[in-house]
Amino acid sequence: MRVSDQVVEKLQTLIEQQNLKQGDRLPAERQLATSLGISRPSLREAIQQLISLGILSSRRGDGTYIQQLPETWSQQLIVEPISHLMQDDPHYRFDVQESRLVLEGGTAWYAALRSTEADRAKIHQYFDEISYHQAHGDSAAAAVADANFHLAIAEASHNVVLIQMMRSLFDLLQYNVFLGRKKVYEHPISADLLSDQHFQVMDAIDRKDAQAARDAVCGHIEFVIDHVRSLDEDEARQKRATRLNRIDPT
């Protein structure tokens, strides 16, 4: 971890400990560096990093102010850079999907074995929310409901480690779902297939069939991987054809 990243973590802890609020001014640079036990150049670098992300703001001659509270910092510092990588690098997107295969195959298995009636009701709730938002053309809300559907399955596993892993990856999962839906759900047939796949996962959990639940969720994720890869290849072919048409003298 870079020194500036370590300083950012210390700043986050200090803000939380001192119960500072949005709009509050940070202590003066000398005092802040002493409190954190760091050099002033390292502090300046970390503050500039946070200012560039819109988390802090600097007012000349008046100090540095808090624009966003620490609970949003992980989204800004981790998920947003990763989201750019996911959007720009197809291989990274597929790596995320493959990691979901490993993790969610296990959560679905244990959800089928251990879920309570309340757990299953929550899974059904998010399934209904996905359908509602999709029918109203709200892709962003549908992506949130979709990610919550998968998280609810993890919570139904009653395995603390699996739940912690899924929660820690929630923002990344949500963005991954959003990218997948952006491509796949543009096609009505695919949208119907994905809805049916979600139903198959939910139904297997309702029936307490662990193997069917694992197979269904892995089949769902594999379908998205294959379909998005196929769409990416089609887009690449279309771009190549467009470039060739532009340089064709005839």
TrEMBL record:
<dbReference type="InterPro" id="IPR036390">
    <property type="entry name" value="WH_DNA-bd_sf"/>
</dbReference>
<dbReference type="InterPro" id="IPR036388">
    <property type="entry name" value="WH-like_DNA-bd_sf"/>
</dbReference>
<keyword id="KW-0238">DNA-binding</keyword>
<dbReference type="Pfam" id="PF00392">
    <property type="entry name" value="GntR"/>
</dbReference>
<dbReference type="Pfam" id="PF07729">
    <property type="entry name" value="FCD"/>
</dbReference>
<dbReference type="GO" id="GO:0003700">
    <property type="term" value="F:DNA-binding transcription factor activity"/>
</dbReference>
<protein>
    <recommendedName>
        <fullName>HTH gntR-type domain-containing protein</fullName>
    </recommendedName>
</protein>
<keyword id="KW-0805">Transcription regulation</keyword>
<dbReference type="GO" id="GO:0003677">
    <property type="term" value="F:DNA binding"/>
</dbReference>
<dbReference type="InterPro" id="IPR008920">
    <property type="entry name" value="TF_FadR/GntR_C"/>
</dbReference>
<keyword id="KW-0804">Transcription</keyword>
<dbReference type="InterPro" id="IPR011711">
    <property type="entry name" value="GntR_C"/>
</dbReference>
<dbReference type="InterPro" id="IPR000524">
    <property type="entry name" value="Tscrpt_reg_HTH_GntR"/>
</dbReference>
<feature type="domain" description="HTH gntR-type">
    <location>
        <begin position="1"/>
        <end position="69"/>
    </location>
</feature>
